[in-house]
Amino acid sequence: MTQPDPPSPASMFENRLRKNLALRLKWAKRKQVSCYRVYERDIPEVPLTVDRYEDRVCVSERSRPNTDAMSDEAHDAWRAAMTQAVCAVMSVEPEAVYWKERERQRGATQYARRDRSDDRFVVTEGGREFFVNLKDYLDTGLFLDHRPLRGHVGETSAGKRFLNLFCYTGAFTVYAATGGASSSTSVDLNPNYLGWARDNLELNRQDISKHRLVQGDVLSFLSSFDRRIEAPYDLVMVDPPTFSNSKRTPNVFDVQRDHLELLGRVFDRLAPKGVVYFSTNFRPFRFETAALMRRCGPVVLEELSTWTVPEDFRDRRIHRAWRLTRKEPA
């Protein structure tokens, strides 16, 4: 008896995508979320992630090892089949499906502009609005895995001076500002991202005079603090790149090597009862706890990753996050 042909990768992908979407739609409605992950390399033969940004879809493909290399023609046909599956399940036209190919990113390459379409559109999250761009950069302007921590910052920022380091497009700043922060300072090397952050603040009808945007190296910014003329910060978000060798600064940043110096300077600018949130995507990252205590004094270090990674992410190690505070005297 002839055995039936095994299902094709496209068929398996479409079936899994349909199942995932049915679950996510109910979840998204309950959570009032419009941008979320639908598929994350569930099937080994289909190493994709699929993220919905309201009525558009971002599909990211991991570079395949040489042993699994396809010809250009075969890859084009494979991608076309996957696009067709996405369109069929998610009820979008092919023009609304944006493909990104991800390789291991080093230095400034992860932030490099890939196109100049300026094809931005507005999405809603947590009652806030954000510009996203699925075409011009490797990243979209809104990191979906930080959604829970953004919400927490918004809930705890009322009346506080907020500092956002490596601020990217300012999503954390928007949450803090709309949550009632008395003021904010956002620091990033990239002027395009700072302009984007300003646009996001204005989109959410915030008074820009209360929210300072600083283009510059984070470590240099922190070292320039003068307590005689500047008040310390009550709430600080630190989300550094794993590695950066931007042309805009002579310094090469490595999160494992430099986290002690970075956090030491943050604590120099922190109010006595201030709170620091630190997040990294570097999987092998380890705090040098003893050295951290010597540099910053007694610190309470609490990992939050079990709840800061949202439910729609299969990869529970997409990031790690901690809360750091000064230890109260006994």
Structural account:
α3 packs parallel to α4 (171-178) and α7 (255-268) packs parallel to α8. This protein has helices at 9-31, 72-90, 147-156, 171-178, 191-203, 218-223, 255-268, 289-296, 305-308, and strands at 35-40, 48-53, 56-62, 97-102, 120-125, 128-133, 161-165, 183-188, 211-215, 233-238, 243-244, 253-254, 270-280, 299-303, 320-326. Helices cover 32% and strands 26% of the residues. The model is unreliable at 104-109 (pLDDT under 50). It folds into two domains: 9-103, Transcription Regulator spoIIAA (2-Layer Sandwich); 120-326, Vaccinia Virus protein VP39 (Rossmann fold, 3-Layer(aba) Sandwich), CATH 3.40.50. The strands form four sheets. A seven-stranded mixed β-sheet has the order 9-8-7-10-13-15-14, sandwiched between helices. It has a four-stranded mixed β-sheet with strand order 1-2-3-4. It has a two-stranded antiparallel ribbon with strand order 5-6. 33% of the residues are buried. The chain has nine helices and 15 strands. It is elongated and about 75 Å long. It has 330 residues and is an alpha/beta fold.
Provide keyphrases for this structure.
Rossmann fold, four-stranded mixed β-sheet, alpha/beta, Transcription Regulator spoIIAA, seven-stranded mixed β-sheet
Strand order of the largest sheet: 9-8-7-10-13-15-14
Task: Count all strands and give the number.
Answer: 15
Termini separation comes to 78 Å
- Taking all residues together, what is the mean pLDDT? 91
Percent helix among the residues?
25-40%
Rounded to an integer, what's the Rg over CA atoms?
21 Å
List SSEs in N-to-C order.
HEEEHEEEHEHEHEHEEEHEHEHE
For the record, the CATH class of the largest domain is: Alpha Beta
Percent of residues in beta strands? 25-35%
Q: What characteristic shape results from the CA principal axes? A: elongated
Q: Structural class from helices and strands? A: alpha/beta
CATH superfamily heading of the largest domain: Vaccinia Virus protein VP39
User: Looking at CATH, which topology of the largest domain would you report?
Assistant: Rossmann fold
pLDDT below 50 for ≥5 consecutive residues: which ranges?
Answer: 104-109
Largest sheet: 7 strands, mixed
